[in-house]
Amino acid sequence: MKRFFSSLLTVLALATVLMIWIKLPWFAVLGIAIAIALWLLATRSGRLAREATKLGIAGLPQRWGASSVIVIGIAGVVGVLVAMLAMGEGFKATLDKTGDDSTAILLRAGSQAETNSVITRDQTPLIAALPGIVRAADGKALVSPELSQVVNLVSRNDGGDVNVQFRGVGPQGWAIRPQIKIVQGRKFNPGLREIVIGKGAQTQFRDMEVGKQLKLANQQWTIVGVFEAKDSHDSELWTDADVLGPSYQRQAFQSVTVKLTGKSGFKQLKAALASDPRLKLDVATTRDYYGKQSEGLTKLIKILGSVIGAIMAIGAVFGALNSMYAAVAGRAREIATLRALGFRGLPVVTAVMLETMLLALLGGVLGALIAWLVFNGYTVSTLGNNFSQVVFQFKVSPELAWTGLKWALGIGLVGGLFPALRAARLPVTEALRAA
Global pTM? Predict the structure, then answer.
């Protein structure tokens, strides 16, 4: 029992150290690296460790089979981890780009998304009269009452049905979002069953060419244009809100998007809403609204990525342990000779650890490179908070690659520790006699 609890405490301590290591900021890791480099250069023990490390690295070609187990195992961990996190990062980046601080969205009080919000038609003129909203040259407020209807389309990938957001926008919807540009065809004409589609929707779903007709709500709709928003709107179909509503027997709107008059506009609008009992509505900048829409899925992906990475990391640690134990056993005579020449325990431990960390670093770089080559910019779609597909691209950022490298070095640290301690405790006389 005593040995069991001692082993359990050791494992928990190593896991704690590994988690702390992974959470360290880059400047802390850089400080540790500089401190180790100075020790290797400026002290006698460090110089001995450096020479012992050179001998170990020089022998890697003769032990490449065992060493490749470490490199490939860690590359797999880092590749999967970075790919998973890149999916969450890409989804978050897409929704973050959708909103900004110059526009705001109004929903029914207590609603978390457009799907469960209702704004009656008699409330829209009241909203348009509120302060804090930009007026166009003709004096009309830049206000877009909108509907969001989920429709079924066919995926290009597997031919299955997927949910897609069919958005009805008001006449000012284009002016409120000037970043949205028509790249093919034209805008829809008000009052007609015409659709413009996002560029992302065109790439992910079938029958999305300009001129084709879609049967939605038992009616024929004509695709007249393609727009590019470079945000989550790229996943949507757009039409006139006054046409979409009657087609789906919707008497009310779900949200109202407005253009704000500078930084003070949001405060003025929020205060005006609070003081008007006829408007029981919540307001948020579109940056905050779409940022919250990404929180749940991003957290889930990060948790899943970390759990899967941790499970794979355990396998990689055992692979590193086996490989390094075999390397230490195969180099028993060499290590014993070094000990006999005056290399004490610390230089020997450091040499084995540095060798393992070098292999781990190679595996980390390889895994991050594979993740970047295969997944960076890869386009997929997933369900968002409105129960419709959001098209986005994987984003392998330098921060994610750095996280993967820290995981790799952490695995190397744990995987090389026990073989290094064994090498330092190797009895000199027995090792030389056995050799």
Answer: 0.77
